[in-house]
Amino acid sequence: MTFQTSLVWLRRDIRLEDNKALHDACQSSQNVILVFVFDTNILNKISNKKDKRVYFIYQSLLELNEFLEKQGKSLYVVYGNPIEEIPKIGKTFKIQCVYANKDYEPSAIERDEKVKLQLQQIGIEFKLCKDQVIFEENEVLKKDNKPYTVFTPYKNQWVKQFSQNNLIKYTYNIQKIVNKEELKNNVFPWNIAAIHFKPTDIYVQPGRKNALNYLEKFAKKINDYDTNRDFFHLSGTSFLSMHLRFGTLSIREAFAFSDKFLSKGAEVWRNELIWREFYKMILYHFPYAARSTFKKEYSKLHWDSNEEYFDRWKNGMTGFPVIDAAMRCFKETGWMHNRLRMIVASFLTKDLLLDYKKGEQYFAENLLDFDLSSNNGGWQWSASTGCDAQPYFRVFNPESQSIKFDPSGKFIRQYCPELINCDDKQIHAPFKYSNSLFALNLKYPKPIVEHDAQRLKVIKLFKLNKH
Question: Which of 67, 229, 385, 421 is deepest in the core (most CB within 10 A)?
Fold first, then answer.
């Protein structure tokens, strides 16, 4: 079917290249209007008006619009509730069809259903496209047509089904995007203040150009990714998670890039991308996991409720150097190394015996690359309440993790300057060497718990509360 005018609603796909919704709209329509809605349902819940993610989105859209304006085109940008705004724009421009790329989070699915109903009432079609994953929903299932809940067999089936056809790059026709003068009633001023936020520094640079730049830099690191990714002081990761989250880079581009390399490092990075799809699939099939433990037998675990412990964890004042350095870095940048995410999550749940939901929420509010499915999956993995999680009796030892992955204490010294005079042995557990440290006037908190004792407590907690 051919449409006179279609609307492409950009959400988690801030790019023109390899964008399935834009491709389909260009294939079926004479004219295409590109729309982005700064969603007040989301923005009104953010108290920090220097939110780094909002600024990342804004800057990425600004770059995209500047490119369009050079072609005489423009983005149509509004601030409001998309359930109202998308149908309103549809009416204004006599749209026949709205295209958007599918989102798999429960709240997004609910939003899209409401938009669809509103559009149906005024005779506008709504088409959702698969774009942010290689395989979605029911495309990778067990032989009994049930979803996988263990990663390795899911990955094996994923790899079995994968072919180069899954990496077809979607094209678009710039000529079909309507000219700027046809959008005169859109008066978005391209000022972050227009959406009631403020500029801020971002650890990961925004926009399509920077996404491709990070990809180019990663080409020099990917072959060593399997070993270097675990060391905090090394820049061994791709820094692409935020770009994949907001769609300045497509998932197909990421997989196509990794296919150029035959190394163990590239294989391990591909597995990380498949983990991303696994967690999206889990949340799609088991939406209750967004609110409660995936393993229902642990839904009534009696976690502690020590707010002082939680505050000291958040502010990097636990007396465990690797935890404190990680949390201070996170507070400053919004970024956290993947292994550090596991270590601090294990510490919150297994050493401090605090509910994983508290940590999950704190990360949700501050993590640059926050993605509901991956954040929830990662926290439940660490807390031993999730699918394919580490067993509850496996508890990361902060000191041994620190010695193994930051042997010289370089990362710790960067974020815990109180410990700068410790030697490479002392820095991982300073109060083991208290006599020499007191001579250095150490201004660093003592450990708030004793690791070995807490490990026994958490094992007992799981045994008592399993039902």
Answer: 385
Q: Can you read off the two tokens belonging to residue 349?
A: 């749940």
Whether 342 is in a domain gets the answer yes
Closest C-alpha among 377, 338, 386, 389 to residue 105? 377
Dihedral angle computed from the Cα positions of residues 360, 366, 372 and 374, in that order, rounded to the nearest 10 degrees: -80
Q: Which of 206, 239, 200 is nearest to 221 (CA)?
A: 239
| pLDDT for the residue 235 | 83
Torsion of CA 235, 238, 242, 248, to 10 degrees: 140
In the numeric block, which tokens belong to residue 217?
Answer: 């830099």
Note the pLDDT of residue 215.
Answer: 97
Answer yes or no: is 33 within a domain. Answer: yes
Question: Structurally, how many domains does the chain consist of?
Answer: 3
Residue 386 confidence (pLDDT): 95
pLDDT exceeds cutoff 60 at 454: yes
3-state secondary structure of 208: helix
Collect all residues with Cβ–Cβ distance below 8 Å to 447 and sequence separation of at least 6: 318, 319, 320, 431
- Is the full-model pTM beyond 0.85? yes
Domain check: are 371 and 414 in the same one?
yes
- Among candidate residues 64, 65, 73, 77, the one with its CA nearest the CA of residue 180: 73
Tokens 């509901």 identify what position? 372
pLDDT (0 to 100) of residue 436: 57
* Strand-pair partners of 71: none
What is the extent of the structural domain holding 454?
Answer: 296-465
CA atoms in the 13 A half-sphere facing the CB of 247: 22
Beta-carbon contacts of 438 under 8 Å, excluding residues fewer than 6 positions away, are none
Q: Report the share of the chain in percent with pLDDT over 90.
A: 90
The single residue listed with the structure tokens 């660490």 is 382
Tokens read off for 380: 């439940």
10, part of any domain: yes
- Residues 116 and 161 placed together within one structural domain of the fold: no
What are φ and ψ of residue 6, in 5° steps?
Answer: -120, 160
State how far the Cα of 334 lies from the Cα of 366, in Å rounded to an integer: 6
